[in-house]
Design a protein that fits this description.
Layout: H1 16-28, E1 31-32, H2 33-40, H3 44-52, E2 56-63, E3 68-75, H4 77-86, H5 100-112, H6 115-118, E4 122-123, H7 124-134, E5 146-150, E6 153-160, H8 166-178, E7 183-188
Parallel strand pairs: 6-7
Antiparallel strand pairs: 1-3, 2-3, 4-5, 5-6
Helix pairs in contact: 1-5
């Protein structure tokens, strides 16, 4: 009589690609199926196994004013625990489904960077924490979405939506200058 495969863990070891996906989600809150497959190079089977083992969760989200549905990935508790034990990531970015197109754009910017630049990525939560530590008596009204370093230059990242006023955008650029950004990339979601 033939025996089936033993029941057991589908994920025995976290690969470099798995790790890259989880770090990206931690830093940007969400990763699109497109980026997981095409930027990172994960297979469908591997993504399904990461989900079955509770490292990530999958959600279908509506984008483009309700005209498209895309598959996205978020961290589960097991993925967060793995990253806490194996990285120095302190602040996990929390994606907001009400601004999913904003967060997906931020995520795609992150995945477009080279590995060295990704390792310098600071999300909005990191930047707020740093600002409050360095300026305990200052009131903070806004913060840019992220920063990363190229050589010795700090690049700010701001993804705007049609809801942003000119004054809000100007304030984002002012705070970027205050925290030491040498340039700011502004992208419309």
């Amino acid at each position: 009589m033939a025996r089936g495969r033993k029941a057991g863990a589908l994920i025995k070891n976290i690969t470099g690609k798995d790790f890259e996906l989880m770090k990206g989600i931690a830093r940007t809150g969400v990763t699109s199926h497109y980026d997981a497959r095409n930027q990172i190079g994960l297979s469908e089977k591997r993504l399904k196994n990461l989900e079955k083992e509770n490292y990530i969760t999958t959600k279908n989200v509506v984008v483009n004013k309700g005209t498209n549905v895309i598959k996205t990935y978020y961290l589960n508790d097991k993925g967060k625990a793995y990253l806490k034990a194996n990285t120095d990531i302190k602040n996990f970015y929390r994606s907001n489904e009400r601004q999913i197109e904003h967060d997906l754009k931020l995520s795609s910017i992150y995945y477009s960077l080279d590995e060295k630049e990704k390792e310098t990525w600071k999300n909005e939560n990191d930047l707020i924490s740093d600002y409050k530590t360095n300026n305990p008596n200052e009131t903070l009204s806004t913060m840019i979405d992220a920063t990363y370093k190229i050589d010795n230059s700090i690049v700010g990242v701001e993804v705007t939506t049609k809801n942003y006023t000119r004054e809000q955008i100007e304030e984002k650029f002012r705070i970027a200058d205050e925290i030491g950004c040498n340039e700011v990339i502004k992208i419309e979601a």
